[in-house]
Structure prediction request, 872 residues.
Amino acid sequence: MKYMSGNELRKKYLDYFKERGHLCLPSFSLIPENDPSLLLIGAGMAPLKPYFTGKMKPPCTRITTSQRCVRTGDIENVGRTARHQTFFEMLGNFSFGDYFKAEVIPWAWEFLTKELELPVDKLWVSIYPKDEEAYKIWTEKTSVLPEHIVRMEDNFWEIGSGPCGPDSEIYIDLGEERGCKSPDCAPGCDCDRYLEIWNLVFTQYDKKENGDYEPLAKKNIDTGAGLERLASVLQGKPTNFETDLLFPLIEYASAVSGIPYNSNPQSDISMKVIADHARSIAVMVMDGILPSNEGRGYVLRRILRRAVRHARMLGIEREFLADTVDITAKIYSDAYPDLTARLDYIKNVISIEEKRFQKTLSQGITLLESEIEQLKQKGQRELNGDIAFKLYDTYGFPVELTEEILHENNLELDKANFEKAMQEQRERARSARQENKRLDIPDLNTINIDKLEIDENAVAAEIVCMWKDAQLVDVLEDGDQAGVILDVTPFYAEGGGQIGDSGVLIAPMGKLVVSNTKKLLNGTVYHLAYVEEGSVRLHDKVRIEVDKKRKLASARNHTATHLLQAALKKIVGDHINQAGSSVTPEHLRFDFSSFEPISAEQLQAVEKLVNTEIMRAIPVTASHMSLDEAKAKGAMALFGEKYGDIVRVINVPDFSMELCGGSHVHNTGEIGFFKILSETGVAAGVRRIEAITGEVAYQYLTEQMATLNAISEHLKTDSSDILGKIAVLEENNRELKRELTSLKDSEAENIAQKLLKTAISIDDCQIITQTVKLDTIDDLRNLADVLCTAIPCGAVILANPHDGKLNLIVKISDAGIKRGLHAGKIVKEIAPIIGGKGGGRPNMAQAGGTKPEALPTAFQAAQDFIKTQLQA
Prediction:
């Protein structure tokens, strides 16, 4: 058996299949592209699904990848078993109607036994009981021991109807000492003896709705081998966590906590959790995911906060996660260079989120301790599930930690209500997956995409494909919503944050209105349209009318976005990097990395610099060159964006140069004018600028001037003196408020003198209970303060009815507090009588109510309760 590092193993696998005619693609982002059914990529084949379903033609019929994946369905098992992880890499080789069992089985065996030198006598194979074809290939074309081939009923891959087929799993026997000691122990057992290291799926059937299996005309191969699992075998490690892909992070957790690894099973679990979760959060942030309360952002937040919780279990209470990014980046320097390129950004995002959670964690503990105290006072033993969910959702407080603290206090959690609240949240998260759902696209594999053209000057075309309701059609009628593909199109397809072009397609017998234009993974441009009148047929010749006004407005905003990013880098700093954008004809939105707000002075300087470049009327050039040449010239590329060998470079000489496929003006002067509307924070470490250009900016300024003129007229002054006029009005207003306050204070003194005469004495304490008519709750508080100061020992209870409701204040003097009076308890005693609730501190409390008519009863109850407090 040959020792290999994780990075060496990955390279060995990809090189092996490249030598066998496979196109090696880099790992896709964790964010699924155009697949609302997935929140995150969790399998090697997931990004290639359109090729397996036949909806799209693959760039090559043989593909190999090492795909980064995140799964959290069994997150509670991470650290408790040898193999469960949230982040992992899946090695895969795929065939789309090319090779099949006869090729993939011998290749897999050769790779394991020759390239990795795994011992033949330790390898086992499972097959589907009825798959005699696979059995014959295994026994005739490999050296697997026949007695090491087992038949398993669950060796059949299918999810509902559609493509499916048998599969064959390869296991390695790690030895009896790793097993369960059962005489029936064999591949498929839940113990750790037989480790599955590779799964070969033979997609050869199409399962129909009626349950029938029909052979596929083109059979596919989908394989998956866990990189960490294979690494654990080659490195002789008992679990994935001891491999060089994870162990440096465990060593870090051990060093920070001061607890040696392998000294305690519970602390080992926490170290493994931290190591696994640290990898996940670093790569998720690298791919552009930010912590939030929904969708994939919530998954990131949950993983990060779970790591912090396990750190606390190790006694780590300081911030520590940001430093794990350095270790993760070093481990994956070859596979994921963006980890190193975005190191500071990733660390800042994680640090900000960790700081927030450290704060909310303390708040959560305080709230939980308060709830526990109330349960004990009431003699109850179960915490309401809604409270546990509030701790989880609002404070990010892990429910496991809630249960742990409850058990320490001999209390239980109401899991039913907690699960109900969690299910409602899952439904909200599931709906987040539908946010960007596209028009359902049918199988387009029959279209020859090589003959489709993009020509911005095209004015006529032929309809080569149409569909509605995910079905290809030959005719569209009035009112139909559809997808349309032309043999040549001048429409710009949505991408790079810019909305697609709109316009009209005029056919011989009807008219299609194009609302947007989009692009499939393979580059095919399609148009979202509806039939406004008449009917449209497949192969109709159409006249094309792109909405040039909207197209130009989008181009203005897109070029302005480039100018904005360049200006931000020059004014604010080179750490500014794009984190997202939206370009429409109406406005532009630019998200960028920054960990503090942009000052008003900086924003003004940025806006001025952009407008200076616009007024210079510089030619904007678009050119095509190799990616390496573009980078050598200093062109900016977006992190996480995939580029081909040849890229398009948009250049504003001596100011901005970016890789971009969007539409742009030919000269900066065409933008007209650039105006920033707002600058806000949208996520941890991400700011957002919204701005307008051209006609929209002109209209905005016109409206602003009209408003300014109206204000000038209203204030009876010139627009240049508005601020001076406002300053005079503000000073006059302050003087009037001072006079009013003086009058109210005088009035309060007069009222106080009258109310003091109504005080009754209870056990040497003066008690005032009265109804008054005042303007505000503040006036009521002030009056209570005056009265409380005037009595040496006692309580003031004042009510202010208004519009069928009332406010009530209870104020206790210092001497009264020493005698045992408590304002908060008095309010809780009498608030239900007046149809309300309230609370407060020992010296002051307040309540609201809906029953002014019950005040006499409430006042009497207060006096009775005060007697009880004084006698206690």
Remarks:
- The chain has a mean pLDDT of 90.
- The CA atoms of residues 18 and 24 lie 6 Å apart.
- The radius of gyration is 35 Å.
- The longest strand covers residues 194-207.
